[in-house]
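Trying the structure run again after the queue cleared.
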Amino acid sequence: MTSYARQARRWPLRLLITLILLAGVLVAVDRIGVAVAESAVAQTLQNSQHLTNKPSVQIDGFPFLTQLATGDYHQIELTDSDITVGQDGRTVSLEHLKVTLHDVTVARNFKSGTAASGSAAAQMSYAALSRTLGTTLSYAGAGRVKASASVHVAGQTISGSVTATPTLSGHSLQFVSPQVSVDGVPAPSVVTAALSGVFGAPIPVQNLPYDLSVQALSANQDGVSFTLTAQHLSFQR
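Done. Tokens:
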């Protein structure tokens, strides 16, 4: 076999290796680019939303570079923690917030952007609620929470427990339909009224980042879960 023939036979293999290496380089460049962009977007969101922590940002879709070229992103996911809600001394922390921005347009320098809409889920733990209410809360099952407390009625200290259903009232978290028991039996009305008061006034859940508003909430084993949405968002560093 001549030298020319051997080279001719090797050419397809060399081309294949070259294409594989080139593809690997392009993927690496794409992934490096998306990491840099995610960090820049996170910084812009932290500044624009006045967040204590820098959120974690994930730009969905592959390849990233084609999205970068147009500035249009189908979906960007954000996660954050320790978002304080409430007012007038009744504040509580959302320990986990996950936001998905839809149909996002971001400037080339990543310092501004808009999103057609946003959907989110948040979790408020019983530990956080307990600190706010000044009593220990736990899950009672069937979408209800339980608080144990002692109250003073007619010169006596009476200990009991009360369950209630967390619900959304306007823009506030409220506890409704209280059921009180003392030593496992229904309590008199005066005791019921006193123990029901451990939940206190409604807790405002508004002025959230990303213009989110609460659509629904419910109690579960881990705490109170929130479903939130937003429309026509804009942000700028």
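The mean pLDDT is 84. Worth checking whether this holds up in the mutant runs.
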